[in-house]
Design a protein that fits this description.
CATH class of the largest domain: Alpha Beta
Largest sheet: 11 strands, parallel
Structural class: alpha/beta
Strand order of the largest sheet: 1-2-5-8-11-14-17-20-23-25-26
CATH superfamily of the largest domain: Alpha/Beta hydrolase fold, catalytic domain
Distance between the termini: 58 Å
Number of domains: 3
Helix content: 10-25%
CATH topology of the largest domain: Rossmann fold
Length: about 650
């Protein structure tokens, strides 16, 4: 009975831990007015999103007319709103400047202003709107905003933004991207100071007036840029200007845009009636490139505006305009903060034992010749997490310096712990090695390359504390299993490469290692033999570590591959492998590179062995013998009195 109760509790713990991890990846909500979703209003769904979440939340909105004044506040970042269709998923309101406010607004005003008249206000960063109609139906009563954006990296895809005066307000100095949108209005209906790109959009004027009123600041390189857009008009609109400067340094550029006959020949207006800034045309930057259609008239344009040259046009790339932000690319998946206990030696045994009933977990008491020193802090990460090591060393005291081995546990870069190497560390310490098992940042805590920084710091710690623990600093090896094998291989392959050191303290000993033992750790993430990230239906362990799937950031996956970094400084390697071929992806290519530099390597493969073979008899003792034989050969571990 107690055993069954314990199993039930374990199952419940695993179930809710996994559920918490899944929820930490992405929140999903459905809004439906008929009650068939999670919420009936969009605002309720927004309010349910975690505050300050690093993980994207997707809110899917079923067709309907949602009469809301919707606010996505600054602390509700990383939200995506997706309507069922742009034509039939409508968010609507009718506030306008001068309309009586029910009570007083947050500024104490009794009436709405331009800035509070919005139907939808996006204050948070990294939000996406898709397949929606956002409208202000106040009519031609003055300023009445449909959509106002205050956050940075705001994406709007296939939306209908409908209004009259001041339809779209891109407030504050953020970056906005609009694609395949319809934007309608009368006067200054695209206005504000943000840097905004409009791609493949239809801009529809309802009356004779002005399309844009940018208020770009002097510090901004770009304001509004329209690519491949189409300017259309209602029948009554026959005299429309491309824009006028709301503030002195306004910037607006139309590139490859089709312009209807409603666009006046001069194109642009200097807004001379503004007494506060009477000569804004002297500092504003208004330009075009390759305008087409009956409204395109380069020769007749206002003399203070510009036609870009082909060379100048080359500077107008989306990446350049938006300062390196690429719209449409998913944000980097962030650590969940939820510990992952899915990988353990005992759990692996339970998994393998039904198929291999003769295996046993390799374990033995600490040899009398070995001293153990546990829970020694070696590093505090930039996230203020203290990392620990355990030290296993020959117990005999004296001035003899011993070769040392830094041991890195496996677990898919997100699970496992340093105690998995305890038995092997004891056995190697009995053979004359100082063995150190180390914590490092898992992907639930910090993304690549944080673990690399930790382990290089661990090697530096070993050299800094060599005298106290009897370490020969000229003979340091690193060994790892599975993900730990990949990490160990990376540390060795990047000997002398300062790019991966991370933040360092005042003491800066070398992080180079003199040998590597890679036990079933892959050498290349992007390789025909690699299984990491190839199944688009699931999130691989490496995806959690990098924060991006392979298809989105192949450059990052390649950078993290040990195979990428082999040089003449890469030390001798021992590869110990199971019968699972994908766990040594890139090994033969890696060996070819080592051979080209004349660097020694060995390979030992255990036929019909599971991936976790090193923890079990009958493979443990042969694995130990292979490791010690290799280290004896390449490190020559004969005692050297006083050697540093």
């Amino acid at each position: 009975m107690f055993r069954k109760t314990g199993q039930l509790l374990l199952w419940l713990l695993i179930h809710f831990t996994v559920r918490a991890q899944v929820q930490a990846v992405e929140q999903q909500f459905v809004v439906a007015q008929d009650g068939s979703g999670d919420f009936k209003t969009i605002q309720e769904a927004v309010n349910a999103v975690r505050d300050h979440s690093q993980i994207r939340a997707t809110i899917r909105i079923k067709s309907g007319t949602y009469r809301e004044k919707l606010v996505i506040p600054a602390w509700k970042k990383n939200i995506t709103l997706i309507g069922e269709s742009a034509e039939h998923t409508i968010i609507t309101n009718n506030d306008f400047s001068g309309k009586d406010f029910p009570g007083r607004d947050f500024t104490g005003n009794a009436k709405f202003s331009t800035y509070t008249s919005y139907t939808v206000l996006v204050q948070a960063n990294d939000c996406t709107l898709q397949n929606l109609t956002i409208e202000n139906t106040a009519g031609r009563v003055g300023q009445a905003v449909a959509l106002a954006t205050e956050g940075d990296r705001i994406e709007v895809f296939n939306c209908r933004i409908l209004g009259n005066q001041d339809t779209l307000y891109t407030s504050k100095n953020g970056r906005n991207f609009f694609r395949d949108c319809l934007i309608t209005g009368t006067t200054d209906f695209i206005f504000g100071e943000a840097t905004a790109v409009f791609q493949n959009c239809t801009i529809h004027s309802l009356t004779n007036s002005y399309i844009t009123a940018a208020s770009t600041t002097s510090e901004q390189a770009f304001g509004y840029v329209f690519f491949n857009c189409k300017l259309t008009a209602a029948g009554e609109a026959t005299k429309v200007y491309l824009g006028r400067p709301w503030r002195p340094f306004a910037k607006t550029v139309f590139i490859d845009t089709e312009m209807g006959a409603h666009i006046v020949p001069a194109g642009w207006d200097p807004w001379k009636g503004d007494n506060m800034f009477p000569e804004k045309e002297k500092t504003a930057f208004y330009a075009e490139y390759n305008s087409t259609g009956p409204g395109a008239n380069a020769q007749a344009r206002a003399p203070w505006t510009k036609q870009l040259t082909a060379g100048e046009r080359e500077q107008y790339t989306i990446d350049h305009i938006l300062s390196g932000w690429t719209p449409g690319r998913k944000l980097r998946l962030q650590p969940s903060g939820v510990p992952d206990t899915s990988f353990s030696v005992k759990g692996s045994y339970r998994q393998e034992h039904p198929r291999r009933p003769d295996i046993r977990i390799a374990d033995a008491p600490r040899p009398a010749s070995v001293q153990e020193i546990r829970q020694v802090p070696y590093r505090t990460t930039p996230m203020d997490k203290q990392l620990l090591i355990d030290i296993y060393k020959p117990a005999k005291k004296g001035k003899t310096r011993h070769p040392a081995v830094l041991m890195v546990h496996g677990g898919g870069w997100r699970s496992g712990d340093r105690t998995h190497n305890t038995h092997l560390a004891r056995k190697l310490a009995a053979k004359g090695y100082v063995c150190i098992t180390a914590d490092y940042s898992l992907s639930t805590q910090a993304l690549y390359p944080a673990a690399i920084h930790d382990l290089k710091a661990a090697v530096r710690w070993m050299r800094t504390n060599a005298q106290e623990y009897g370490i020969d600093t000229a003979r340091i090896a690193i060994m790892g299993f599975s993900a730990g094998g990949e990490l160990a291989a990376f540390i060795g392959a990047t000997n002398g490469n300062g790019q991966f050191e991370g933040e360092r303290g005042e003491e800066k000993p070398s992080s180079t290692v003199q040998a590597v033992v890679d036990i079933d750790g892959i050498l290349a993430f992007i390789h025909p033999e690699s299984g990491e990230g190839n199944d688009s239906r699931s999130v691989s362990a490496a995806t959690y570590w990098f924060g991006y799937p392979k298809t989105e950031r192949p450059d990052l996956w390649k950078e993290a591959s040990p195979l990428t970094h082999v040089t003449a400084q890469t030390p001798p390697f021992l590869f110990i492998n199971s019968s699972v071929d994908r766990m040594h992806a890139g090994r033969e290519d890696f060996i070819q590179k080592l051979n080209a530099f004349g660097t020694y390597s060995e390979v030992r493969t255990f036929a019909d062995a599971p991936h976790t073979f090193m923890f079990f008899d009958p493979w443990f003792e042969p694995t130990l013998a292979t490791i010690s034989g290799f280290l004896d050969k390449v490190l020559n571990p004969k005692s050297t009195s006083g050697k540093k």
